[in-house]
Amino acid sequence: MSEPATTAVGADAGPREEAPARQLSPREIRRQQRLRIGREQILDAAEELFGRQGYRGTSLQQVAKRCEFSIGALYLFIDSKEELLRAVLDRRHSDLMAQMRACLATGGTGHDALLRLARLQVDFHRRHPDFGRLSVQIVSAAGTDPGSVEATSGFKEDVARGYEAAIELEAEFFALGQQDGTLRAGDPICLARLFSSLVFSYHAMDPGVVTSGPTLSDDIFLSTVSQAFSPPPWPAPAS
């Protein structure tokens, strides 16, 4: 988000005094609280319906009905279904990225941090299973049925940027582990992509997220992550 524009002043105008913050009236405070609550209700309803019925199978009328809004009131908050999808994804993505950064800052070896990250991502999608199902739909659609999530190229670019930001952060975990010798050598970005693929595959088999299909235990998943990215017990082959 860009910084707010400021009015230019002459060089001899001297320092500008900051305008005192406007004191909100009780009525304005209540209005802003209602707006925040209304927005969260809409995002919650949309996340649930998108996750359970799919993006294509959900209408704005259904979202409005679920949160007991009129369709007119809904349009006070959003302009289109795609904009609503963006807002649903942005809310959870921002929260998850903040938790990932905190996980990296916790300390310990890179190997321990990577396992904490895997656990964090699994638990996050379980706490928000409708978001987890929606994520599985969107990522799967990229290689199977792109029409399952009708979106503009701008939306797809936004999703790609969010993915790349997550990969760059995950790569920092690998760089840490390579520095302390607890994670295998290799391009951290490439390793982060492999790790991300493993985590996504597990979301699609997690009974706490999906409702059908094969499942796998957490122990097997975490031990697979550990073994996949630990330094090999044998010397690397000569190049």
Written overview of the protein:
The structure is a single chain. By secondary structure, the protein is an all-alpha fold. It has a domain at 80-229: Tetracycline Repressor, domain 2 (Orthogonal Bundle), CATH 1.10.357. Helix content is 63%, strand content 0%. It is built from 9 helices and no strands. It has helices spanning 26-53, 60-66, 71-74, 81-105, 110-127, 129-141, 153-180, 188-203, 218-229. It is elongated and about 65 Å long.
Largest sheet: none
- Beta-strand percent range: under 5%
CA-based shape: elongated
> Which percent range fits the helix content?
55-70%
Give unreliable regions as ranges: 1-16, 143-147
Radius of gyration: 23 Å
Count of helices? Answer: 9
Distance between the termini: 47 Å
Structural class: mainly alpha
Q: Can you name the CATH architecture of one domain?
A: Orthogonal Bundle
Annotation, overall tally of beta strands: 0
The H-and-E topology, N to C, reads as HHHHHHHHH
The CATH superfamily of one domain is known as Tetracycline Repressor, domain 2
> How confident is the prediction overall: mean pLDDT?
83
CATH class of one domain: Mainly Alpha
The CATH topology of one domain corresponds to Tetracycline Repressor, domain 2
Secondary-structure topology with pairs:
Blueprint: H1 26-53, H2 60-66, H3 71-74, H4 81-105, H5 110-127, H6 129-141, H7 153-180, H8 188-203, H9 218-229
Helix pairs in contact: 1-2, 1-4, 1-6, 4-5, 4-7, 5-6, 5-7, 5-9, 7-8
